[in-house]
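tool_call: predict_structure(chain=1)
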Amino acid sequence: MTSANKTPHHSVIIIGGGQAGLSASYYLQQQGVDHLLLEKSALTNAWRTQRWDAFCLVTPNWQCQLPGYPYAGDDPHGFMKKDEIIAYLDGFIEMVNAPCRTGVTVQQVKPRAQGGYLVRTSDGEFTADQVIVASGGYQVPIIPRLAERVPTEIKQIHSEQYRNADLLPEGNVLVVGSGQSGAQIAEDLHLAGRKVFLAVGDAPRCARFYRGRDVVDWLDEMKYYDISVDKHPLREGVRDNTNHYLTGRDGGRDIDLRRFATEGMELFGLLTGLEGSNLQFAPDLASKLEAADAVYERINRSIDNYIEENAIDAPSGKHYQPVWKPEAEREQLDLRTAGITSIIWCIGFAPDFRYVEASVFDGHGHPVHHRGVTAQPGLYFLGLPWLHTWGSGRFSGIARDAEYLAEQIVSTARLAKAG
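tool_result:
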């Protein structure tokens, strides 16, 4: 760092203090690289403030493989609950001991004419030779403009604000979206005895257990989690996929929306409009349920093939048999007549990298990169879904990505010094 009369300078500035930023710090420290981590809130803040009370991991605990800090508990095939996850992260924070400043919002990252970057923050300016953007791709909660026309007496929140059923007004609840958060929040409300209306989206589903093991265990053994973006059949398109819905709750189980329907949950297709208090839905519920089941079956069949090809002794498998089918597609629902007093928007987040002034983004605001390395020298991204593999945005794969970027940073610094 320079003298007190000059702009503080670091070899690397890391933006974001989640598991990605902390993992980057871990490897930069191993390489002896001077750096500073900037976090606008508290370290690992999203895990503390954007999860509902009954939240738990959907991947088994053994997949918690943060660098230098693998899961060491006595339940590797269980699923940590919210408090246990926070305790795990607290231990990681203490172990890494990153050079960091919290409560500092980054307002601008801009390449300098003389090389390196200017980083403007709520607490002054910094300069850096290289920058890692590790703030994630889930910054802006998505709420459709349609929400502006919902009757004012109905409470509306985004999934990141949901905590439990008791904090919602009495009455029925509409959950919009059936990805991981939507499906699990709908289940949480359903188990709490709330009448739930669910607008189903395009998310696929996956079995929790199949042929005697957690499906995640099978897929890991099959090396699925080692497939890189450039080897995946969808290539970069896999980054647009919605996560499969299942749960680790109560030891782990499938989430079957059809079963919920037999128990009183009311399912609809894609929400498309609102006139007064009357919601409008696409007539595609049956096709969306069938598509989700098809993915479920396809994953199970891939496990069957693996077992057969490798002569593995495992319990027999079976095909899924739908327990419910919609008799007719319902395309309208009156909010007031249905007694709906709350809406929870579970349709995801959008990235917000507007503070990064570099020509490295596509038309949707996502950075263009290869394994986090952009075309702008010295600018990197870390912690994004499918940055390199399935585990890139998760506890299971962030170490591999962070180590790779640390090596790239050291190599770039050596080339600059030699030049």
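agent: Residues 285-309 form the longest helix (25 residues). Proceeding to next step.
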